[in-house]
Amino acid sequence: MKRCKSFLLVLLLPIAMSAQQNSTADELFLKARNTAFEQKDYTTSIALAKEALEKALNYTDISIFLGRLYTWNKDVASARAVFEDLHKKGVTDEDYFIAYSSMEYWNDQNTAALKVIDEGLTNHPSSEALWLLKAKVYFADNEYAEAEKAIDNLLKINPKNTEAIALAVRIKDLSSKNAIGIIYNYSHFDKQFEDDWHIVGVSYKRTTSIGSFILRGNYANKFATNGTQIELEAYPRLSKTFYLYVGGGYSEDVGLFPKYRTGVSLNANLPHSFEAEVGYRQLYFTDNIWMYTASVGKYYKNFWFNLRTYITPDNKNISHSYTGTVRYYTKSAQDYFAFQIGTGISPEENRNNLLDNETFKLRTFKIGAEYNFSIRENAFSLGTMYYNQEYRPNEKGNQFDVTLGYTRKF
């Protein structure tokens, strides 16, 4: 009986020792993670991960994490060595392909990143992270058509992927080199003006490697008088995070339009699907009106939330305008419902000539909705807006707007 117990002890001892080693490796792995995420001490975390691997050499999760640690510590050669060793071992974990391709992408090795991503998608065709990273790589290389294909595949897998929707909106604006558009705005006033307003805008957009440019011509019939305006806008990209808005306009028909208008904004695509903008707008009728604008936006699942303000200072006081917008995206970046509510008049609106004579300091309430949908390369929009405008001190009137739009990309 004693011999039998001794024999069983000999058999079970290696298993018990292996379990103890793996348990110790797990503890070191957990400590390495806490050190990296909580203390940002990557050097110590690397040492702990290497110690864990000495106890469990084939612990794939630790090896992948070690590759990530080298990446975060900017030791690209060591990170690549870890990932290449895992590749030789035939590792096909989804996290391995994500970590390896991310390292190459963050170090601007986009060709190498795509090679790893494509291999990963062969093994994990429904990986949202890999499809998203593929879209980012193509977007960084200005390959907008390929980026659009990747992001469309991801949205088929998960239409509520927040980061994918945010990137899709940016890609859609750049995926076609050319776009022509027409927009019509109708305004009816119950008290402020006797005649309805009609405004038509025709635009041409050209996408280049440095950003997009838009040339627009506007025709207006306001106060039973006709007028025209020409505008030029540009959206140059500064980096993966930042881009500019630069715009200007000119009209000889002052009163229907400002004689001059200019605007510049710095825009940022921030982590966690946030975006922000800060800049100015200037309108010149017979005097300059300077407005300073700021906005913050957030994508969450199928929704986009945005809050924008315009601040107009003068010698006596400061005028404020606030607008909140919510969009609900349906099947793509060009298909959504939008709801808007706010106070004050925006210089981006077709009624911006009401900013003359300091009426922008009077109180305005607005509420409206919009529906956008696309059919292949054709985009359509329908919007309506209600304004309750204090057009003279203590005198208010109502305004009803309807807007129709069409854009063709090619």
User: CATH architecture of the largest domain, please?
Assistant: Beta Barrel
Q: In total, how many beta strands?
A: 14
Counting structural domains, the number is 2
Q: Work out the helix count.
A: 9
Unreliable residue stretches: 2-21
User: How large a portion of the residues is in β-strands, by DSSP E?
Assistant: 35-45%
The CATH superfamily label of the largest domain reads monomeric porin ompg
Gap between N and C termini: 86 Å
Query: Which class best fits the helix and strand makeup?
Result: alpha+beta
Helix-strand topology string = HHHHHHHHHEEEEEEEEEEEEEE
Largest sheet: 14 strands, antiparallel, barrel
Rg: 29 Å
InterPro entries: Beta-barrel_YaiO, TPR-like_helical_dom_sf, TPR_rpt
Protein name: YaiO family outer membrane beta-barrel protein
Organism: Chryseobacterium terrae
Keywords: Signal, TPR repeat
